Amino acid sequence: MSQPQPPFSLNDLTGKPHSYPRTRPSLICFVKEDCETCNTAAPVLEAFHTAYGSEVDVLLISQSGDANKIFAQRYALTMPVLDDRTCKSAFEWDIESVPSVFWIDDAGKVTSQFEGFIRADWEALSADIAAQSNLAAAQIDWQSLPAWRPGCGSKHLDPTVYDKLRADADGSPIRARRIEVAPSDDVAEFMFDQGFSDGLPLVPPTPERVMRMLGGTHRDPQDVIATVPPNMGIATVEKIAINAVMAGCKPEYLPVIIAAVEAVCTDEFNIHGVTATTMGAAPVMIINGPIREKIGMNMKLGALGAGNRANATIGRALRLVVRNVGGATTGGVERSTLGNPMKFTMCFAEWEERSPWPALHVERGFKPEDSVVTIFAMTGGPVHIVDQTSRAPDQIAGSLGLGLEGVFLPKLRNLPVDALLVVCPEHIDTLTREGDYSKDRLRDQIQKVTTRPLTEMLMDEDSGAGISPEMAEKMGPEAMAKSVPKFANTDFIHIVVAGSDAGKFSSAFHGWATGAVGSQSVSKKIDLG
User: Fold this and answer.
1) What is the largest distance, in Å, between two alpha-carbon atoms of the chain?
2) Residue 1 has pLDDT above 70, yes or no
3) For the chain, N or C: smaller number of CB within 10 Å?
4) Region 319-327: what's the mean pLDDT?
5) Are 301 and 499 a contacting pair, CB within 8 Å?
């Protein structure tokens, strides 16, 4: 048994309400003023109203708002012209084009339905209404009318209208609390005042924008992705989508952000500690795999800077989720001494095709065709490493190593701390000019050029950082005579390729506390459905 048509209550041109269901047979037609086919149908419908109006309710439902009056005057319409300018009824009746005709009996059953103008259908409809109402057929010169004319798209199918209607409809997937903003309030200022912002303006997360954002993933809006520290807020797909809207993301970015939220909310990454440390740590996000090209990420010129929407807003969306869902606000749990510009955003793609090495995600056990997000907790960077004169592979590798001396402090060595080295294409060309130059060889060269005697780490009159005299005495002369590299082992040195083909400027990100006492980098496969 077919479902009855949804009820409505719409006003005519005089402001009088007309509701559905009706108590007698109804002929209901959806139209819009600027549709040529609707203009063909309007005089026919008026003839039906004149001929059958004593037994049948003929209602014209128009989507044209203030133009409804013009439409009625054009054809001297006497039948009720109802105002559906919001297109809510068109949406609920699930039409696709106008004119859209419904012939409904007094029990509410649709006995005939069609769209557009096919003369034979309209002529048959007239005969059917005449027979059922025992009235004379409407006087219409059928031969003067076109045999066929296609309908026009219903206005409710415009994406901006449709998404709002979906968001407002019963059964909408949106469950988040709605906040009403007074008409006199500036929406942007309101969001600042409510504490939603990271300090930059936000895109208002209207229901229709959130609906469009949710279209970027196959996941159910109420799927729980993670529990977000420090306040242990529940990050559903919907809440992540809301923050993605505010960050300025496109819907196709949403799967990346979901994977990023999953990654930082693991115990291994420890987003609570990353957020709370006074050292100013922040997530640095690297994207690998086909998704890079699909969503237009930048991995080339200016990859670590401004100008690319995906790079800028994906990283920002993650930070907004941690802030708005997790409660990590500056001055609250966020206690960074100086702060860090990466707390706004830091996200880029690896230029895998320019790299002579396996991509980062492949190194970490994923397939080349997988799309993967990898996130590090970093306190400094990107810090440029400038070498425009080295011509030999080991020379440029040595310069890259010396550029990492500044992690924490040049004086400190044997550090169990991550470093992320972003090697530019011209430095890659120098590294490989004599043949293959593996990542392991580069890591070994970094360790070699940064190896220094432990005695250089002693506290002295120039710097109170390093090994105290008491510790040195406890270690003994033999141990202090040893030399150590910058990093405790090569596993702490992570390497990717990005940047313009022009310019011998690589960059490095300096880590936070790595391991169980701090944060471990985490990779998550992006669920593209």
Assistant:
1) 117
2) no
3) N
4) 96
5) yes
Long-range contacts for 153-158 (Cβ within 8 Å, ≥24 apart)? Answer: 153/96, 153/97, 153/98, 154/30, 154/32, 154/63, 154/87, 154/90, 154/95, 154/96, 154/97, 154/98, 154/100, 155/32, 155/63, 155/87, 155/90, 156/63, 156/87, 156/88, 156/90, 156/91, 156/95, 157/96
Q: 469 to each of 385, 408, 465, 480, 492, how far by Cα in Å? A: 33, 21, 11, 11, 28
Q: How far apart are CA 157 and CA 182, in angstroms?
A: 29
The two tokens of residue 324 are 């708005």
pLDDT tens figures, 291-317 = 999 999 999 999 999 999 999 999 999
The answer to whether residue 236 scores a pLDDT higher than 50 is yes
Q: Can you tell me the distance from the alpha carbon of 293 to that of 196, in angstroms, rounded to the nearest whole number? A: 31
Residue 458 region by backbone torsions, left for phi larger than 0, else alpha for psi between -120 and 50, else beta: beta
Q: Per 3-state DSSP, what percentage of the chain is helix, strand, and coil (rounded to 5)?
A: 35, 20, 45
Among residues of the chain, what percentage have pLDDT more than 90?
92
Question: Each residue of 371-404: pLDDT tens digit?
Answer: 999 999 999 999 999 999 999 999 999 999 999 9
